[in-house]
Amino acid sequence: MTAALILLAAIAGVGLILYLTHRPDADSGHTGDNADSAPAGDDTAAEEGCCGMHITCERDSLLAAVSPQIEYYDDEELDRFAGRGAEDYADADIEEFRDVLLTMRPDDIAGWARSLQLRGITMPLPVREELIMIVAEERAARAAKETATIHPERN
Length: 155
Fold this sequence. Notes:
Blueprint: H1 2-21, H2 44-48, H3 91-102, H4 109-118, H5 125-150
């Protein structure tokens, strides 16, 4: 039973990574030059949601390559874990990551994961699985909300 759950978690993780990295418009020649035209201090697009100009919303993406800017989420104390492997954490360290994760707003979690990647911090495996689950649930809830807004007759 345990092996089946581990296999299921691994398949779900690979599926999520493939979903996040799938870029059908990669050959269309879009370079994303418009992203540099917005002023650096203008966060209105991030506050309102995705701008719709990218295949992957920067606010939702877990990939560090989407946004190279490091943003801290009151988690500077986690910098001491830079360079550590995902399996090399003590239970107290895992709880420290979990505490930060569970005190965040759901729409900040993907940005926090990108920030950790850019800072060279590998998340403990149990916390990474929780993060992926929370982000997936948030995306599903947002998609359901958008569907209800676009197609109110389906409710």
